[in-house]
C-alpha cells in the first residue's frame, strides 16, 4: 500500500515538475557543454549545454502523455471489441477472435512502426500506433470475462425477462468489467511508454530535437565512446524506474481488486 | 512457467551475443597491423551508391582514382594539365580544342585516344551526368589525339567538366562498368564488397608520378566504428566527426582540413502567394523582409557555433565559396552584433507591441520555421543553437527535423539548413541565379537580382577562368549590391566544417587542398604525395 502511494506521488511529481521547470534550462548554453553531473546540473549537460535533468523530466512526462493517450485508446478498443465478441453472436465472435489472433501473431513493435510510419510519424502517428497495437491481449481477457458473466444466473434471468442486449451489456456486464479494464489499462501503460521510447529511439517518431526519452537515449549513444556516460545513464535509469513503478501500481491494484488474490 | 521460459530465452540471447561478439573480434584482429609499408587501410566513408562510373557523376567531388581527367586542380586549386597537354578556346568561346598526351594507356594496356574522350562525353551527356553538360552541343575527334568540343553558347565554367569527368575506355565500357571500372588513373579496382570494403592496387600503366602505395583498402564503416577501428590500430587513416576530436588516440594524430563544406540557412526571398508547378507554396512574408535576413546574419555568433557545435574545427562562413579563388573577401562582416541587429529591426518598423517577446510589424509576427534533415546531427545542433541565438532579437524560429522527402515539399516557403561547397564556380551560379529558382535543391528561396544575374552572364561568357573571376567576385558584392549578406542576404551562411582525419604517425598525407562538400574521397586527391616519413 505504502509502495503504491509513494509510486503515485513519484509519478505525479514528474508530471507537475514538468511545468515547474524553467524552459530556459533546455536552451543551448555553449559555455557549459558536456558538464558532468553536479549540483547545478543534477544529470549533467549535453553537447549543446542543455540541462539533462530538465530534458529527462520533459522527456518522461512527454512519454507518459503518449502512454496515457495510447493506453486509453487501446483499453477502449479492447473493451468494445471484447464485449462485442462475447455478446453479438457467433459470427462476430469468430471475426474478432481472428482479428485478435492476427494482431497477436505479429510482434507489437513491427505493427507499431508500420502504423507510425504510414501516418507520417510525429506525435499523432505514435499515439495512434500505440492505441492500435496494444489492445489484443486485453480484448481477449475481456471477452473471456464477458462470456463468464453472460452465463451467470442474473444475466440469464434478465434475458428471460425480455431485457434488450444493450441493457444487459451496459447494466449487468459492464460494471463487472471495470476492475479488469482498470488493471489492464495500468499494465498497458508501461508497455506503451517503452514502445514509445523504442520507436523514437529508432528515429521514426518525433522530430529529433524534441526531448523525448527515446530520442535522448539514441543521441547519447553517439557520445558513449567519448566517455559521456551521464547522457545515457540517468535518462535510461529514470525510464526504467517509471516503467517499473507503473508495473508495481498495476500489480498492487490487481491484488486489491482480484478477490482470489486479495489476501496475498 | 512463463518466467522460467523468459529466463531461458534471456540466457540463450546472452550466450549467443557473446558468441557473435567473439566472432567479430577474432575477425577484426586478423589483418596484420605490422609490416604494411606499401599498403594502406582507410576508413574515410564516402562509398558511392552508384559505383565508379564517371559518366554518371563518380569523382566529381575529388579524384576519380580509377580514371584520370583531361585537366585537374593542383593543391592551390589552379587548373593544370593531366591527360591534356594543352587546350584552347576559340574567340567566341564556343569551340574548345584539347590535345592529349600520347603515352597514356588504360590499366588493361590499351592506349587512350581521342575516341575514348569523345565516347566519354557523349555517354555522360546521354546518361545525364551530375556534372552539368547541357551546354555541350557535340564532341569530335579531330585526329588520334585532338578533340574539339562545340558548345551551344559560351561558358567559361565548362573547363570544370574537364576536371570532373574521368575518361572511360570505349572498348571496355559496358552495363557493369560502374562495378568493374577500367581507367587510366593511379589505381585499379581489385575487389568491391558493397557496404563493406573496396580494395585497389596501383595501376602499373599509370603515366604520371606513381603513388608510393601498392595497395589500398577502403573500409566503409560508420563514424563511431571508424573511430573504434582507429583506437584498435586497424586503420591508417580514419575520418571522424568533431565529437570525437577531443580524445587522443595513441599512435595517431589529428589532421583538420579546411573546407568549403559549408552549412547555412536559405531563406524564402519572396513574399508568399505563389505556388510552383507542382502546387507547392512559394515564399514567406517574414523572411521576405530584408531587415529580418540582415539582422539574423549579423546577430549570429559564428565563432560560438564553431566552438560549441564543431569543437573548434571549422571556420566562419560568409558565402558559399569562402577561401576559393573566386571568393570576394569583401563579403566578410562583423557578426555576433545583437545590438546592431536590434537597431536594424527597430529602424525598419519591427516592434514588440503585445509584449510576448516576439516582434510584430502590423499584423505580421516575426516567426518562421527552419527545417533540417533529421538524420544529420551537426545540422540539428546548428539549427537548435541558431534558433536560441536569435531568440533575444525577438525573432522566433521554430525548428523541425524532417526527412528530405518532407523538406522538398516545404523548402520553397520555409527556411532550410542546407549545405554546399564545390571546386566549380558554376555551383554559385546554380544556387543564386534566378534561372535556377525552384530547380532541384538550387535557389529554393527564389532569389532574384537582375544585377547579380548580369554578372553571372558575364562570368559565363568570359573567355577564360581568370577573366571570369572578376565577375564571380562582383556578383557577391560590387560595392552596392550582391548575393552575399552585405547585399541582399538571401542566405545566412554559418560555418565551413573542417574535415577531421586521424592519421597514423609517420604517414604524410601531403598538403591537403580545401575540401569540397563531403562526398567521395577528397582526402585521396593528392594520393601521389602520400608517403611514410619514418
Note down, in words, how this protein is organized:
The complex is a heterodimer of chains A (about 260) and B (about 525). Chain A has about 260 residues and is mainly alpha-helical. In chain A, helix 2 runs parallel beside helix 10 and helix 8 runs antiparallel to helix 10. The two termini of chain A are about 10 Å apart. By secondary structure, chain B is an alpha+beta fold. Chain B is about 25% helix and about 20% strand. A seven-stranded mixed sheet of chain B has the order 8-9-10-1-11-21-12. In chain B, helix 5 runs antiparallel to helix 7 and helix 11 runs antiparallel to helix 12. The interface between A and B is medium-sized, with 17 and 27 residues. Chain B: This is Nickel ABC transporter substrate-binding protein.
Give structural attributes.
heterodimer, A: 264 residues, mainly alpha, MetI-like fold, 10 helices, 73% helix, 0% strand, elongated, B: 534 residues, alpha+beta, D-Maltodextrin-Binding Protein, domain 2, Dipeptide-binding Protein, domain 3, 3 domains, 6-stranded mixed β-sheet, 12 helices, 23 strands, 25% helix, 21% strand, globular
Lay out the secondary structure:
The complex is a heterodimer of chains A (264) and B (534).
Chain A (H helix, E strand, L loop, with lengths): L1 H19 L31 H36 L2 H16 L2 H11 L3 H12 L2 H15 L2 H8 L4 H37 L11 H12 L5 H28 L7
Helix pairs in contact in A: 1-2, 1-10, 2-3, 2-5, 2-6, 2-8, 2-10, 3-6, 4-5, 6-8, 7-8, 8-9, 8-10, 9-10
Chain B lengths: L1 H27 L10 E5 L27 E3 L5 E3 L2 E6 L5 E6 L13 H14 L8 E8 L2 E6 L7 H6 L22 E7 L3 E6 L12 E5 L3 H9 L5 E4 L11 E6 L4 E5 L23 H10 L2 H8 L4 E3 L21 H10 L12 E2 L2 E2 L1 E7 L3 H14 L5 E7 L1 H7 L4 E4 L7 H7 L17 H12 L3 H12 L14 E7 L1 E6 L2 E2 L22 E2 L2
